[in-house]
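Justification of resources, computational component.

The compute hours requested in this renewal are based largely on the per-chain cost of generating structure records like the one below. Each record pairs the submitted sequence with a full structure-token output. That output is archived, and it is also reused by downstream analysis tasks.
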Amino acid sequence: SGVEFTVEGAAALGRAISKSEGSKSVLQYLKMDNCEMRPETMRAFVNGIGPEGCIARLEILDLSNNPLRDEGVAILAEYLALHNCGAGGMEASGAKDVSLTGAPLLTAHRANPLEAGNKASSSTGMFIRTLELKSCKIGLQGGAALGRMLGTSRPNRVTTLNLEKNKLKFAGVEEICKGLVTNTTLRLLNLSDNGINTEGGDSLARTLRVNKTVETLQVGNNYLSTSLPAIAQSL
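The structure output for this chain reads:
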């Protein structure tokens, strides 16, 4: 955290945590926020990890406050779409309330009807459950890449996705919603402070009437006042 990565340094870190290196260490939380990770360093990082994925079991990847932009997020999302899939998921929380109060962080919860709690069945690939991408300058194309990651035919293992303080707006959220239609693993989605208007809110409401696994949606500091009742009803 707070260390500026060069391309060479990012590649070396990827190799250091790669399964192919044969390390027996256990790495569950990798915090790389505010490290000046850019598209070129992200590409070097995932290439360094390679197709075998990280050492067991990296569950939390925090890349917040990096200038990844759409290109860097697309590189990461494409990699995770290929290597962060398979059986697994967190147990349903059992939350039964719907709350859209408590601004500036507006949060909606619902009980998840699915019996989750499966353990990942494969020892290869990635096992990331929580992906933190706060303040990474993500816009339309980055949202589209994340939507494709969420909508892969093999369920992605990401259960918590934090996209707070980006630039998704309506068009980026619409792309994420496309992936949510078929996603069966995501439990928490933070879209706070993304310049989302009522059109984006209406799209979220329609999507959540189809998606039955998202339990918590955070949408504070957007422009959704007229969409909030529909979002609450969809949960």
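Helices lie at 7-16, 39-49, 69-83, 140-150, 169-180, 198-210, 228-234. The radius of gyration is 17 Å.
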